[in-house]
Every structure is written in C-alpha cells, then in structure tokens.
From TrEMBL:
Keywords: Cytoplasm, Protein transport, Transport. GO terms for biological process: autophagy; endosomal vesicle fusion; protein transport. This is CNH domain-containing protein. The keyword Protein transport applies. It is found in: Cytoplasm. Residues 249-370, 527-565 are annotated as: Disordered. InterPro entries: CNH_dom, Vam6/VPS39/TRAP1.
Length: 1224
C-alpha cells in the first residue's frame, strides 16, 4: 500500500488554480482553497461502501441550523445559492450568489424546556459594495465569495464580486469610509494560532489579499495599513520558485521585494489568483509538483506591467443595507489593463468543478480549450505542523490527499477520494461527548463530492480518519448524505457545501440520555424481594456454618431496617427523574462545521460514541442464525468492538459513563454465550478479555452472579436495590427470562473448571474495590460468600507447601482473608476444618486479634506443623506486622524475641515510625538490646544515624565501625593486602578519576560486612558531624602501630601497614587542621590531585562525602595561599618526572593568583623548560601591570580629591572672611 501511495504522489502532480493564501502559524504562508468537508467510506480495493443510512452509525450526523433561508427579499430563491457562511458571537452570516450578506441572530433556548434548542432569527440583509470589472457579463458575478471575521479588532472583511469591503462587528456598519480593494480573488491569511482568541485589548491583525499580480500583506487595526513587501510561500518544492532560489533557509518566509532580481515583484502565491487550465492548454502549467514553472511563465508575461494600488475609492457611492438583490447598486471599476476572464464552461456534474463563486477576477490568461475543467486546489491545516494538499486530474477522477510538514516533506500516508472533492475541511477538535475511538483526539477529513449509486448521482460528505496508521488495509470511510425532504426541497442530488466556522455551537443528545439513565434491577424475576439464603446448594460440611450466617444476616437486616427511615412512596420515580437530569447535563456536544444545501443549513456534529457503538451491539445481538459459525462471528464482533475502547482513559465524565456502558453491555452478551453449554467453548484469551471488560465496565458483581443459578441465591440486595444502566438492565433481564422454569438446584462443585476459574478471577478482582465510597457494602457480602466457596473448591488441588504465587488459587485465598470477609465465623470454621493455620492467622490479623496472630506465627516458626506449609519467611512477616500493633508490651515481647533470632528485623520493630504503639525512647532501646539482644545494637544505631538522622550516636557508631575494620585488619593478612592493593590501583588511574570513596564504593563486595562498615565509617567521618577527631586518629594510629609490632614484616612493610587507613587519616587530618599531612597523603599515597587542589580551596570540606562541610572549615585567603604553597612543594616532590611536570604546570596555570612569582621561580628547577610555567608567568605579568595601572589611577583619583578638598576649604575661608583678633 505504501508503494501504491508513492506512485499516486508521482502520478498526481499538485495543480493550483483559483487558490488562496493563509498564514497558518507565525511567519508561515499556507495555500488553501476553501473550507468544505466531505467524506465517503469504503473498505479495501473493492470499494465497499458503508453508508450512514445503514444500521452502523457514522462519525457525523446533521442537525438543523437554518431551514428555508430567505435568500432573496422577494422570496424567489430559485437562482440564488449560498456561497459561504460564518458564525461568531451570537451572529450567523450567510453570503449568497445574489451579492447579499444575510445576518441572523441567535436566540437562546427556553431554560424551562430540557429538550429545547436555540433558534436563529433574521436580523438584516446587507448588499456589500463592489466594483464590477470591465468586460464581465452581469450573469457571471459570483456574489459574496468570502466572509472573514476579525474579532480581535472588531472588523469584518467581505469579498463580494472580487471587491473587498470592511465592516464593524457585530452590526456590520461600514468602516474606513468608502475604502475598497478591487480585483481581489481571496482574503484571509489570519494566524490560525490566534483564531478565536481574545486579548485584553484590541490589537492589529495581519491578513493577506490575493490580487491580480501579487499577494498583499495588510494590517488591520483602527485603519488598514499596507505592508511594503511580498512573501514567498515556504512550502519547499511544492510552492518554491524553481528559477529563483536564494541561499536562504527553506521553510522560512522570504522577502522577495529585496531579492537580487529586480524584475520579480510578485509572490509565488500569485499563481493562486487565477484558475488552472486543463492539461494540454499551451498557456497552462505542466504536470509538475512545483509551482516554479507556472510562476515563471506568469512572470515573463507581466514583468513590465504597473501595479494597481491596494486600497481604492469606489466609482460610485456604496449601496445601502436596505437594498435587495434586485435593487443593489454596484460600482464600475476603473479602466483595467487586464483582459476579462472568459466565462468557464459549465458541464453536467459541475458540483465537482469550481463554482462561479471561486472564479478569480480578470487576468491575462488564455481562454481554456473546449472540454477543459477547472479544479480548485484544496489545502487545509489539520494539525499545527501539517498541511493536507488534495490534487487530481479532473472533477470525475479520483483525488489524492497528501500530508506534508512545514518543510514540505510527507508525514502521513496519503488519503484517497473517490472523486475530486468540491470542498474539504479537516476536523481535529474534541467534542464534549468524546466521540473518538482511539487513544488520542481523533481527526477527520470531510470532503463534499458526488458519487454514483444504483439510483443515480448522489451528493454527500465522504468522511475518513486522517490520524490512523492504516498499514496495508484501506482506511474505513463513511458516506453522509441528505435524506429526501419535499418540505425543504433537499435530496441526495442537491450539491452540498461545508465550512469550519469561527465559533462552535453547543447541543444535546436525547438518545444518550435514554441509554445512560440508571434503572432498578432485580435478579429474582419471580420475586423482586431478596430471598432468604438457600442452604440446599451448600456442601454438608459447611451447611451448619451457612445456616448460622443466614441467621446473622436476617438479624442484621432487621436491625438495619428498623434504624432507617422508610422510603417515600415515589422514591424510585424521583430517582429516575434526577438521573435523567444529571445525564442530560452531560450529554452535550459542540460543533463548528456548517453544511448547507439549497436554502437549508445544518450543523455537522460528531456522532456520540455511545450511539455509534450501540449500533454495533444491536447488530451483534440480532439472532439471524444459530449455527456455530454464526456464534463465533458474533463473538468476534463483540470482542472487536471492545478492543476499540480497551485501555482508553476517559477524559470526561460522560465518556467514562459511555465506555462503561458499552463494556457492560457487550460483556454481558459475551458472558451469556460463555455460560451457554451449546456455544463453542471460549479460548483462554477470550475468557481473559471478557473478564477484563467486565471489570473495566464496573458492572455490579451481583448482576454477573444473577446469570449463574448456582450462586444466584448468594446475592444480597438491600431495600434500595441494584441500579444499572437501562440498556444493560434490559439485556440481563432478557437472558434470565429465557431460563427454564423450576428450581435451579446446583452446587459449586458442579460448575465446570472454566466457570470456576472465571468466577475466581472476577470475584477476586471485585474484592479489590472494597472500600470505594461509590460501591455499596452489600455487594461485598455477596462477593465474599461466593468467592470463598469457589476458592476452597479450587484450592483442594494445590500441592502441600506450595507458596501463594501471583495468580494462583492460594494467593487469591490469601487476598480474600487479608482484606477481610463479612462472613467471619464461617471462614474460621472452614479454615479449621482444612487445618490451614497460616491462612487462619491472616484472618486473625484482619480482625485485629494481634495476640492470636503472633502466637500462631510463633508456633509455626518454632516448628509446629502448618498443614499448608506456606508461611514462608515468618520472621519477616512478623517484623512487618508488629508496627501495626498498638500494644507496647506485645511489641516489646515479640520484638526482643525476633531480635535474638534476626537482629536486623528485630531492630526494625523499634525504629519504625509507622508503629501504632507508643514510641520507644532510643536510650531505653539501646539499654534493652544490650541486655537481651547485644548483636542487634549496631543495627539499631545505624537506623538512628542513617535512617532517622539522629547525630547523637555518631561517635558511638564510629566506634563500632572502627572495631569491625581494625579487628579485620589485625586478624586477616588478606584484608591488609587488599587495602594496600586498592591504593596502588587507585594511584594507577589516569585523571580525571573519581574520589577514593567512590572508587571504594564501586569495587566493594555487596555482601561483605567489613567493606560496608568501612564505607559507612568514611561517610560518617566525612559528614558534617561533630565527633572527637583527635581521639579517633589516636586510636587508629595506636591500633595500626600495635599491628606492626606483632607482625614479622620488614620496616618498609610495617610503615605501609601504618598507612592502611589512608582516606580516614586524610579526613581526620583535615578536621584537626593538619593540612600538610592531608595534602601529603592525597598527593603521594592516593595520587588524587584534583581533591588536593580542592582541599586547598575549601579545606576539610572538600573531603565531605555527604554534602558541604561546616562553615568554619572553609580556609581564609591567607590559609589558601599557604596550602597552595604546600601543594606546590608536594607536586615538586612527585617521583614520576612527567607527572611532576604536568601537575606542577597545571597548578601554576590555573591557580597562579595564589603564588608569588619570585618564590615560584626559586622553587622550579632550572632544568625545566619555560613552557611549564609560561601560562603562570604571562598571567602574573598581566596581573602586575594591571595592579600598577590601578595604583596610578588610585593616586590620580586621590590627587583630584585632595584638590577638591583644598578648593572647598578656600571657598569656605573666603565665605567666612577675615577674623580680627582684638587681643587684650
């Protein structure tokens, strides 16, 4: 199929005739030709047509907007047609071929009528002014060709008979005086991103005018303003100039007026100002996918012609608003240098050819040959970054739709049209009732066209999706046409127009209300009241328990009814009425697509999803045949329908209800076939899909159980009853009514394994909904009883000791008792009879019987036999359960017992903040563990420090880690060798290298407690904690010294053993201000030069492994200078010469500001090349020069300041004047 589409792209070149230009997004010109939608539908190459008048509802439906539009003032509408429509702010505008603009006002619906609809009343009739081109007969006037509303500036632009006039909104009063734009074939170009948006204040709007020789950019505000440049259309090869390609970036707007060729003064979109000629006309363009050749020929013919001004005054006064179509006055245009355009030929079936409304103004184009046809090119923008371009060879030939991006590259598979469309629109909006079947907002293309049927030619809308990947299959299409109606003169043979309006209209759907209203359902057809629970279907070993449960249920129901107020007599009717009002408020949609034919206008509305899917359900429910083949086909249809909505998340409440309704009804239909023994058996995948859809539809579990006689008597219904969708209620009642008369005495054991498995999965999934506020509690009484019977029946075949794996029967049994059951006594009896101690303990746990739960688990852990053998890790289960107990004494007792058996788990009992029991004081816990579980003390301290952030125990935890690490080094030569080897390996790494702590973390064995303890030790030492660093360093030194004394190694090896804990020593040196020792270890033992440099800048804080260090550890500038001098000395002492030179040069070049030039020159060996310190010397000299200049400037400023002060002093002295000292 992909190859076939590529071939179509090659065979059907882009042909542009009376096209127009739109500005789609900022800076992007878009070719377009009208806004009409039509679609036809077929499947596969056979051309199978699926018409909307069939039983399957299509994606769109027509709703009346205006009937019998008064196209003329005197009521004669025979020769007058609707050209265009527009709608905004309660005003509906209709342009006719009689050169009139009809204005209708919207009247809201009556609020008291729930089914009322708004109406449109006739407001005014306007005859826009126009200037008639010379040489054009009166009969060829197209009338009102376009209505362009500009809400941002409150203006309307009307294109009537190739003349643009301007009016104010909404009263349509003339603005800009008598200003007109003559010889215009199209107006538009409004930014699609700004359409319909409102700003805080009016602002200017940019539009485009397609004139005879150019496409002019005009900005509309208080006054129109012509922009003095033209635009090249950035659609790559589709609309680029083949013989005028500049070096500018493709896909961007280019200013052609400043191009290098002075003869080219028109936009490439000028090709759109005149229609295409038929193939073979020497004056027409060739079958090329580029507009360059066509534009260049027009350029050759019109290079020297003068351009007309854009805005012109009319030759005669503008016509009045009150004039009718027979009285309107028009202005004759001034003498035109262009020749008039010949009248296009009219052919049968001209609905597919361009109408006179689309004929452009006169231009120098040769007359078409006889038999030639004009094709209006259709270009729309379905998405913000795509365009749909429709092309073809003739009005009766197929059309091809190509999707291209902003650069003109194909983006999607092509669309195929049965015939070349008259008009086309793309509808990608999302209506309120969510009619899409996919996961994203669906997009449709609607094309208006004519199609041959058995009874002749029909006009209609061909509708197809554009946002699906069809693969090798043909896309599904739908055909929507007008029904024959003698009262308004419409029929399928009436040509149809379509347009996307500026504003949408809201409407309601009564059929949705009827299907989604909740109705009361009773599973007992003969007796709608809840029957007593039957004991005949129970096994003898559970009959006594079930009898006791039935008595408890009756007592509970009696007490419940006595406490509640009686229901009103009409409560059910009131609920039905309120439900209808609620659904009616949701069943609303909106549309901005207008369809017209003759003198009638409709809304093209997205068909609600419920109506479309309901039609498929009704087709599947028709019992045409009873064969196995037919049953499989119906089953496949139902599953296919459910697959279309599987996994889709509802975006609105109505969509949620719609999807639930469809899932419920289709799933009930499948379940009835699944339970029917005469039906072919379901496959595993089909059964799973049916179960999932039953759950996704949130169907009441009691409705499902009502279809199974063996479990129907387990259903519990309160006085309110079961409320389900009306459509689902009818289906279920029809299945129950078809059962044979007589009692259904059936036990659970008589059900087939497939039915038992289905019930197990379905009821277990329903149990997960327990606690939802929207689900009545009575449902779970039914679910618990039914599920427990099914699980116990299935679990008899489970091998002893097998764990409850996911999906197994035993796992489902666990979930049942863990989440609680309403029939507790019956559950205890059953578990005791099966000797299922572990399951019994889980049931105790749900009932908050902590002592019984812990005692049962303790017995099993200590060796008492559990018949099921599925307890598993009992210690872990106990550790997880103890925090849920509020009894502190019980927690302490079993916490200590567990800490002795498993220290890590036991400690978690005392450190879990989620515990309901009163919290234990850490000091008290440490004392208790030291006395009764000493092995758990370290784990408790780790929880306090790392888990809870309690730094009070950091020093004590460091002591524990030091004991573990030092004891391991003292007792294991292999550990000492490993530590020494790690330093050698780290030094061998080439920079940039990670920190040693990270290096140690990456290479530490995951289960080695010593390595993990050392990592934690480094983390604590490098963290922002307060501890006695001097004491810790002394302990490390003494321990390693003792180790050297007791070993028989050489003196060098003993020295190496004293440096086994190098990173610890570095951190401690930094904390104790022994910076020289820290730098020496970093440079010579670890070779971590980057950390050494960072140490000079930040001191000991650079060694923190858990974040920034303390503020008091940041060295001063003087300390940093001293540290850098020390580091320079250490770098000069590196054994490896190349490494020494490299690190020394890098240090001086990067941090030369901390060094004195003379001191550095005295330290660097004379044998070294100057290049080593070249960067440092250059920077130092520059710094000296800068400092000298700054000093001179400071002295100059000081001198000036001194002069100013002296001047001020003299002025003050002069002001004071001389002072006479009289003396004595």
């Amino acid at each position: 199929m992909a190859q076939r589409r590529r071939g179509m792209l090659e065979r059907w070149p882009v042909e542009l005739g009376s096209a127009s230009l739109d500005v789609g997004w900022p800076g992007l010109a878009v070719l377009r030709c009208g806004w009409s939608f039509a679609t036809w539908s077929y499947r596969g190459p056979t051309g199978y047509l699926q018409r909307q008048r069939d039983k399957v509802a299509g994606p769109y439906v027509l709703r009346s907007l205006l009937q019998d539009v008064p196209l003329s003032a005197d009521g004669t509408n025979d020769d007058i047609k609707i050209n265009c429509v527009e709608y905004y702010d309660e005003g509906f505008y209709v342009g006719t071929t009689a050169s009139e603009l009809l204005h209708f006002m919207r009247i809201p619906a009556d609020p008291s009528d729930p089914n009322g609809a708004p109406a449109f009343i006739f407001a005014s009739r306007l005859s826009p002014a126009f200037s008639e081109p010379s040489g054009v007969p009166n009969g060829s006037r197209p009338g009102v060709q376009q209505i362009l509303l500009l809400p941002r500036v409150g203006k309307a632009c009307i294109l009537c008979n190739w003349t643009v006039t301007f009016y104010s909104l909404p009263e349509l009063s003339p603005v800009f005086g008598t200003l007109q734009v003559k010889n215009c074939s199209w107006i538009g170009g409004v930014d699609l991103n700004d359409v319909g948006t409102d700003g805080d204040e009016p602002r200017e709007v940019t539009i485009l005018l397609s004139l005879n020789r150019r496409i002019q950019v005009v900005r509309i505000a208080n006054e129109p303003r012509v922009m003095k440049h033209q635009l090249q259309i950035p659609l790559m090869s589709i609309s680029s100039l083949d013989n005028f390609q500049t070096g500018g970036a493709s896909g961007e707007v280019q200013n052609l007026s400043a191009g290098p060729d002075p003869g080219l003064t028109r936009s490439s979109s000028s090709a759109m100002t005149r229609p295409l000629l038929a193939p073979g006309d020497p004056q027409g363009h060739g079958r090329s996918t580029s507009l360059g050749g066509f534009i260049s020929r027009r350029h050759d013919r019109q290079m020297g012609e003068p351009e007309d001004p854009v805005f012109q005054e009319p030759d005669s006064p503008a016509p009045s608003r009150s004039h009718g179509p027979g009285e309107r006055s028009s202005s004759q245009s001034r003498a035109n240098t262009d020749k008039p355009l010949p009248t296009p030929p009219r052919e049968p079936g001209a609905g597919l050819a361009v109408q006179t409304a689309g004929i452009p103004p006169p231009a120098r184009v040769a007359s078409p040959k006889p038999g030639s046809a004009f094709l209006r090119p259709h270009i729309v923008s379905p998405t913000p970054d795509e365009f749909l371009i429709v092309t073809g060879t003739g009005p009766l030939d197929p059309g091809i739709g190509m999707f291209v991006n902003l650069e003109g590259d194909p983006t999607r598979p092509t669309l195929e049209f049965e015939r070349y469309p008259r008009e086309i629109v793309a509808d990608g909006g999302s209506p309120d009732f969510a009619s899409s079947l996919g996961f994203e907002e669906e997009g449709y293309v609607l094309a208006s066209m004519a199609r041959e049927f058995e009874d002749g030619l029909h006009h209609g809308l061909e509708i197809q999706r554009f946002d699906v990947n069809v693969g090798e299959d043909e896309p599904e299409k739908f055909w929507l046409e007008l029904a024959t109606n003698d009262s308004n003169g419409t029929s399928p043979i009436t040509p149809i127009g379509i347009r996307s309006l500026l504003q949408s209209e809201e409407m309601q759907f009564r059929e949705v209300v009827e299907r989604l209203c909740q109705r009361r359902f009773s599973p007992f057809m003969k007796n709608p009241d809840t029957p007593p629970m039957s004991l005949k279907s129970m096994d003898s070993r559970t009959a006594s328990s079930m009898e006791r449960q039935s008595q408890e249920k009756e007592l509970f129901d009696r007490d419940l009814e006595s406490d509640e107020e009686p229901l009103p007599a009409d409560w059910e009717a009131t609920r039905n009425r309120e439900g209808e009002e609620f659904v009616r408020g949701l069943a609303k949609g909106s549309s901005r697509l207008a369809v017209w034919a003759g003198a009638n206008i409709w809304w093209a509305v997205r068909n609600p999803l419920l109506v479309r899917l309901e039609s498929s359900l009704e087709l599947a429910a028709v019992p045409d045949q009873q064969s196995a083949t037919h049953s499989l086909e119906v089953r496949e249809q139902l599953f296919a329908l459910l697959d279309t909505i599987r996994g889709r998340d509802a975006r609105t409440e109505l969509e949620f209800m719609t999807l639930g309704y469809v899932r419920q009804k289709a799933s009930i239909m499948l379940l009835a076939r699944f339970l029917d023994s005469s039906e072919p058996p379901f496959t595993e995948s089909e059964t799973t899909a049916m179960e999932q859809n039953l759950l996704d539809g949130d169907l009441d579990a009691r409705v499902v159980l009502a279809l199974i006689p063996a479990l129907r008597n387990e259903i519990v219904v309160d006085r309110i009853g079961i409320w389900i969708y009306g459509g689902v209620k009818a289906v279920v009642e029809s299945y129950i009514s078809t059962e044979e008369a007589g009692p259904n005495i059936q036990t659970v054991g008589s059900l087939t394994p497939s039915v038992l498995q289905f019930l197990k999965r379905f009821l277990t999934a329903w149990r997960k909904k327990k606690g939802f506020g929207s689900i009545p509690g009575e449902i779970f009484r039914t679910v618990d009883a039914s599920l427990l019977l099914v699980l116990l029946e299935l679990d008899q075949n489970t091998p002893k000791g097998q764990l409850g794996k996911t999906g197994s029967v035993r796992k489902e049994l666990y979930n049942l008792v863990d989440n609680g059951v309403d029939c507790f006594d019956r559950a205890v009896d059953l578990l005791e009879s099966y000797h299922r101690l572990y399951v019994l303990s889980r049931l105790y746990k749900h009932r908050k019987m902590e002592a019984d739960v812990l005692a049962t688990w303790r017995h099993i852990i200590e060796g008492e036999e559990d018949r099921g053998g599925e307890l598993g890790d009992g210690e872990q289960r106990m550790s997880s359960y103890l925090p849920n107990i509020s009894n502190q004494a019980l927690v302490k007792e079993y916490g200590i017992w567990l800490a002795n058996r498993n220290p890590k788990l036991g400690v978690q009992v005392f450190t879990d903040d989620r515990g309901k029991a009163p919290k234990f004081d850490p000091t008290q816990v440490v004392a208790i563990l030291r006395a009764e579980a000493p092995d758990a003390v370290k784990y408790y301290l780790e929880h306090l420090v790392f888990g809870k952030g309690n730094t009070a125990y950091v020093s004590e935890l460091i002591t524990y880690y030091l004991d573990i690490v030092i004891n391991d080094l003292q007792s294991s030569p292999a550990s000492r060798a490993t530590a020494a080897a790690s330093y050698d390996a780290y030094r061998a790494l080439r920079p940039p290298k990670p920190t040693y702590h990270q290096f140690l973390t990456d290479n530490a064995p995951p289960d080695d407690e010593v390595w993990q303890s050392r990592l934690r030790l480094l983390q604590l030492l490098g963290g922002p904690h307060d501890y006695d660093a001097t004491a810790i360093r002394a302990r490390i030194d003494s321990s390693l010294a003792t180790l050297s004394e007791h070993t028989q190694e050489t003196k060098i090896e003993q020295q190496q053993q004293q440096e086994l804990l190098v990173p610890e020593a570095i951190i401690l040196n930094g904390r104790t201000r022994r910076h020289e020792d820290a730098l020496r270890l970093l440079v010579h033992l670890l070779g971590d030069y980057d950390t050494a440099v960072s140490y000079c800048l930040r001191g000991g804080s650079s060694l923190s492994a858990s974040g920034p260090g303390r503020r008091d550890s940041i060295p001063t500038r003087e300390t940093q200078t001293r540290l850098f001098r020390v580091l320079l000395g250490e770098f000069l002492a590196i054994d490896d010469l190349s490494n020494r030179v490299e690190q020394t040069g890098a240090l001086l070049e990067r941090f030369g500001g901390w060094f004195d030039v003379l001191e550095v020159l005295s330290l660097i060996p004379d044998s070294w090349s100057v290049d080593v310190a070249a960067g440092f010397l250059i920077a130092a000299l520059r710094r000296i020069v800068r400092e000298r200049q700054e000093s001179r400037l400071a002295r100059s400023l000081s001198g000036a300041e001194n002069l100013r002060v002296n001047y001020d002093l003299i002025v003050k002295i002069d002001e004071k004047g001389p002072v006479l000292d009289a003396g004595s």
